[in-house]
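Exercise 7.
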Amino acid sequence: MQQRDLFVGAGDFGFWQAAIREVDDPSYVALSKDVRDGEAFTIDLLYGDHEGGQRTISRFNMVPVRVEDELRWYPTIVRHWNLDRPDPR
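Solution. The predicted structure, written as tokens, is:
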């Protein structure tokens, strides 16, 4: 569940943050292992407009890249789909 409400104007840039704060969350162990081992993982992010409509899911693939001795994470969006309208494709 997101705790921050952001408004991003059409055609503008935005950001989001996520965390699994409870160690007893079922996803915590698997995600921790992927991050520690430098394995790619996927995040599905549900968002909508300021009235709660136009709900959209964007799928982010988090790709680990080793640069010298540092592990960096690069997000790539691999898919978008909406829940409130017919698929435009």
